[in-house]
Here is the input.
Amino acid sequence: MEMLIGSGFFIIFAIIVAAVFLHFVPIGLWISALAADVHVGIFTLIGMRMRRVPPAKIVMPLIKANKAGLNVNVNQLEAHYLAGGNVDKVVDALIASQRAQIVLPFERSAAIDLAGRDVLEAVQMSVNPKVIETPVVSAVAKNGIELKIKARVTVRANIDRLVGGAGEPTIIARVGEGIVTTVGSSEKHTDVLESPDDISKTVLGKGLDAGTAFEILSIDIADVDVGRNIGAQLQTDQAEADKRIAQAKAEERRAMAVAREQEMKAYTQEMEAKVVEAQADVPHAMAEALKNGKLGVMDYYNMMNVQSDTDMRNAISRAGSSKKSVERKEKA
Here is the structure.
């Protein structure tokens, strides 16, 4: 009985030891590498386990590269993996570039991958150019007519400028700028409608792919639509603005005139008050003059006669004016 228990513990211990050994020593992967004529030491695989590098992510791309005839070693692939790169995609890109006869060293491919770009897609784009469709670009000719233009830009990846080169948004922005400049320099919008290929020639001549990760092969105008009459709209807006300014100035002048009128009314009322006040002092002054002998009785009567004559003339003139107005009303 004790022998059976001891043998059971031994078997369990042996299974645990074998599982730990197979975990740290990927025998199956080592055998696959040997079968593919790729020499990877068993201790190298154990070291990958210790460095927390999945051996399959290194050995399988290494086998693929070896079968393609690439000169790549384990240390390069493991270093790229530890740096955060995609080893399998880098190897696929190297194989694709070799088949397409594109010079792409491992260091450059790894740098492109670590820069965040899809190195395999870049190689594929070098072989098969990509078409970038720009959004609708609104441009205005010199006669004020708006044109809405959509273009298709055919680009090819430039492997040498993938690291540090600008991407697709820069290409789209530069093409849009070229379209706006070309249309804006046209005298009439009909000139653009007659020969839209002039836009492509002008934009291509500006060297828009400088400093980018692409090489522009062609720029084709996909659609041209006539938009609004921006010039007329701007003139209308300007006229409306001028009208509002004129109305504001007229209102300002009216307010000033009203204020001036109010000032004159106040001044007139003040003068009338002073006249009334002065007239009230006349009887007292005349009485004082009579009392002191400065004004004689005859002088007083003469003054009263003159005042009566003046009042009579005023009454006659008012009566004549009223008569004439009545006659005009009757004639009307």
About this structure: The two ends are 150 Å apart (CA to CA). Residues 141 and 184 are 5 Å apart (CA to CA). The longest helix spans residues 230-292.
